[in-house]
Amino acid sequence: MPNILITTVPFAAQNPLPIELLKSAGIDFMINPLGRKLKEEELADMVGSFDVLIAGTEPITDRVMSRAPNLRLISRVGIGLDSVDLLAAERRGIQVSYTPDAPAPAVAELTIGLMLSLLRSVHVVNAQMHRGEWQRHFGRRIPEVTIGIIGTGRIGGRVLRRLSAFGTPRILVNDIHPDSQVAPKLKLEWVDKETIYREADVISLHVPLTGQTKNMIRREHLLQMKRDAVIINTARGGIINEQDLAAVMVEGHLSGTAIDVFNKEPYEGELAKIERCLLTSHMGSMSIDCRTRMEIEATEEAVRFLAGQPLQGMVPPEEYDVQRQGL
């Protein structure tokens, strides 16, 4: 039986180096044969006697781990940990590592791209042009709007620093750990989330999915926002209540939204029927360079583990504490 099960997809699609690393180390491996995100039962049936998972966002639950008696490392390709039961892994003596910095530049840049598209209605005009309709839409420029950023860590901080190139918009920020130096070129206003909901023209979310952030934005919060506000979620599905978002948009509230992450993926919900919703397929990290770096770092960690070397990307204790508080 191979030593490593690679469940994340795609894997080594743009750069073969991760595969070469495994082969040069003499490590047997199997790549997810279904070529898509695995469901819990599928992963439980597949995990067998593997020693290591190089994992994506599929659910790695206690039930899955119970079917993997030899599993000793989960090497996560990416940053999000809501799909991994860290406490179950801890109880079972399974180490967990991740690649938190690798995807951040790509996600930040996609966020800026989505922001520009929403403010200029690019996605709406594109759909109209494909129907043979010619309409010109008035839009807004970044320096002329108030931007609200919730979460100023690895990705939110990069979004802020990239915004500085556009001039000096008013920027409202919120984070449980405020950092006055996160974007020194900008004059940031540290406020509570409700102030952002009320006053921002553009709201962008950059927080993990936890017990505190699940359904953080519901109908009552959406209705607090300006009628022509736009909201972007490139963080995690479940932070915005998707049903509430669809309902308020059908009612005519919010001029646009851009969503890259969903409760259930692939997404098949009501937002897909609303033209001013810009939907992307969880592709925030999918630039060639960032995706390759994520895969290489996760693979190097697996190789180190099987060689008995110290791990370099271990998930820190505070991430376990988040789950203890109730994911």
Number of helices: 12
SSE succession: EHEHEHEHEHHEHEEHEHEHEEHH
Beta-strand content estimate: 5-15%
**Strands in their spatial order, largest beta sheet:** 8-7-6-9-10-11-12
Arithmetic mean of pLDDT: 96
Query: Which fold name fills CATH's third level, the topology of the largest domain?
Result: Rossmann fold
Helix content: 25-40%
The biggest beta sheet reads: 7 strands, parallel
Category by helix and strand content: alpha/beta
The unreliable regions are: none
Q: Which shape, going by the Cα principal axes?
A: globular
What is the architecture of the largest domain at the second tier of CATH? 3-Layer(aba) Sandwich
Distance between the termini: 34 Å
Tell me the domain tally. 2
Which CATH first-tier class of the largest domain would you pick? Answer: Alpha Beta
What is the multimeric organization of the chains shown? single chain
Radius of gyration in whole Å, from Cα?
21 Å
DSSP strand count: 12
Say which CATH homologous superfamily of the largest domain is assigned: NAD(P)-binding Rossmann-like Domain
Describe this structure in words.
This protein is an alpha/beta fold and 327 residues long. The protein has helices spanning 17-24, 40-47, 62-66, 86-91, 104-120, 122-130, 154-163, 193-199, 219-224, 242-250, 288-306, 317-324, and strands at residues 4-6, 29-31, 52-55, 73-76, 95-97, 146-150, 170-174, 188-190, 202-205, 230-233, 256-259, 277-279. The mean pLDDT is 96.
